[in-house]
Amino acid sequence: MRSRTSFTVVRVHWDRLFEDLEGQLASEWESERAALDAESERLRISRLELRSRLRVLCASAAPATLDLPGGARVRARLNALGSDWIAATIAQAEESRTTRSTVIVPLHALRGLTVDHGLLLSSLDEEDEPAPVLRERMSLGFVLRDLARRRVPVRIVSVDASDLHGTIDRAGADHLDLALHDPGEARTASAVRAFQIIPFAAVTSVQTAGDQMP
Predict the structure, then answer these.
(1) How far is CA 150 from CA 121, 147, 154, 169, in A?
(2) Rounded to whole angstroms, how far apart are CA atoms 30 and 74?
(3) How many CA atoms lie within 13 A of 207 on its CB side?
(4) In which band, very low, low, confident or very high, does the pLDDT at 212 lie, cut at 50, 70 and 90?
């Protein structure tokens, strides 16, 4: 009887020991798996490009503050990404109405973006849908040539903080010709004060005239 009791005690002891060992092993496996997952995530993020994150933010129409040369800051809602530019919508209150305009910022002029922390984290995720490849192939010159074709009045801010108003007459591979005239005026011979050649590298932003919001 005493021997059988002793055997039972020993068996219970070993069962508990094995359970403890299994628990430790499972814990070590879980820690190792978590470490591998963390390392895999760090590796994925190390390969992540700014364009990928901007693509996600534009798809979300993310509100953001764009930091530009000279300390300029523009609060806008991101809406499009091109091959070398990003576009956003600006809402401005003017007397009893609110207007909206589009600002196009060359990526070379972008100094940083301030976004909500949740949006910042979501921009790290992989995309579920394919990117709009055609739009992303559109260069800054392509967009500016369209503005010239449609005779859209623009405001161009340069990297040295020059504030120019006028209409783009034409856009080349790396520069544009701007007919300078007062804001709100049509590009007529009598309204044009001068003409200026502006390299794309000198452009901080191109803003279209505001339209009244409903």
Answers:
(1) 39, 5, 11, 10
(2) 46
(3) 23
(4) very low
